[in-house]
Amino acid sequence: xxxxPLDKAxxxxxxxxxxxxxxxxxxxxxxxxxxADLGKSNVHRLLQTLMTLGYVRKSNDTLYTxxxxxxxxxSQVISRVNVRDVARPYMQMLAEATGETVHLSELFDNQVLYxxxxxxxxxxxAYTHLGGRAPAYCTATGKAMLAYQTDExxxxxxxxxxxxxxxxxxxxxxxxxxxSTIRAQRYAMNRGEWRKDVIGISAPISCALGRVVxxxxxxxxxxxxxxxxxKAVAPQLIEYAEKISANMxxxxxxxxxxxxxxx
Length: 263
Description:
Blueprint: H1 5-22, E1 27-28, H2 29-36, H3 40-53, E2 56-58, E3 63-66, H4 68-78, H5 83-98, E4 101-108, E5 111-118, E6 133-135, H6 140-146, H7 151-159, H8 172-185, E7 188-191, E8 198-206, E9 212-221, H9 227-247, H10 252-256
Helix pairs in contact: 1-3, 2-3, 5-9
C-alpha cells in the first residue's frame, strides 16, 4: 500500500510509540533512532510532538518513555470488547473444520459457564446448553481455565471434587501436576471425565493483563472421535485462542508468558 508524505510521519510516530510502549525501560534518542531506523533529528522532532500530545514523557533529561495516556486509551478500547463477539468467527471456523460442537466458556463460581456455542452438524453430539454449567475440574474448557488460576483457587475447587467417571481427577495434588502439563502444552483435554461417552479439547483465552478469562474448545462423542483426532486439532485451536486473546489486548509477550501460573 502506498503511503503519502503526511502518512509517513504518522507511521514513524506510531512506530516510536510502539517501541517505547514495549520497552521495559526508558530509551534515549540514539537508541530509538537505531531501533526505528530513523535519523536522530527526525526522532527528536517526533518525540516533541508525542510529548505535546501527552503520549510520551521524559523520565530524565535524555530518556523517554510512553505515558499512561497510552494505557488509558487501550483500557477504554478493551472495556468495549466482548469476548463472544471476538471469538465467534473463530468458533465458526473451528466448527466448519471439525463438524463438532464448539464452546466458549468462562469460570463462574468455580464452575464452567457456557456463554456461546455452535452445535455439531452430526445427529449424535455432545449435549450442553447455552448458559449451562459444568464442573471446571473435569471438562476441557474448565481445565483450560482452571490450570491458570492460583494454587489456592485450584485447592478450593478440588476440595469439592467428586468422581463422575473412573477417569475424573479428584486429588488436588494430581490436578496441580496435570495443570502444569496443560500450561506447557497450552491446551486441555477431557478424556471422558465428566460424561464417560464425551471427550473434548480446549485452549485458554487471555485478556490484556495476562489473565485467562475464558476458553474455546470442542467436544464430541467418544464413539465418533478419538483422542488422537482431537490432539490433531490442538495447533489450530491454540492458534485461534491466541488470535482471540490478541484481539482482547493480549500482546505476544504476554501470551508467551502464560505458562507461568498466577502467584
